[in-house]
Amino acid sequence: MNDCSNEILSALRNNKFIEGCYDGLVVAGENPWELAIDLVWQDVGKLRISPLTLSDFWALRECWDSSLTHHSKYLFFLFPDNEKKDRYIANHKKVHITEA
């Protein structure tokens, strides 16, 4: 385990506010962009916290498109309402961020 993972693991284990709320804590990743935190949260179940992947981007985009009206999208600006910008974001992630 590297310094990044160790720091996160230590911070979570020493946090008195969340003490006893989780079990099975596993922190992995060489850097913040590859960080993955797995745990079982009390009364919730298994959780995985990790960076956004390209497939996540398209799922969020579809949800955003189908659940907000045209006028509401400007109030909850999650993604640009422009196909060129969508392609730019997707291409940027393909080039600069590798899928796990």
Detailed description of the structure:
There is one protein chain. The protein is an alpha+beta fold. The chain has 3 helices and 3 strands. It has a 3-stranded antiparallel beta sheet, with helices on one face. It is extended and about 45 Å long.
Q: Return the average pLDDT rounded to an integer.
A: 79
Helix vs. strand class? alpha+beta
Report how far the terminal alpha carbons are from each other: 17 Å
So what's the overall shape?
A: extended
Give unreliable regions as ranges. none
N-to-C SSE series? HEEEHH
Number of DSSP strand runs: 3
Helix content: 25-40%
Task: Report strand order across the widest sheet.
Answer: 1-2-3
Number of helices: 3
What is the strand content?
Answer: 15-25%
* Alpha-carbon Rg, integer: 17 Å
Largest sheet: 3 strands, antiparallel
What are the SSEs and their pairings?
Elements: H1 3-13, E1 22-28, E2 36-41, E3 45-49, H2 54-67, H3 83-96
Labels describing this entry:
100 residues; alpha+beta; three-stranded antiparallel sheet; 3 helices; 3 strands; extended
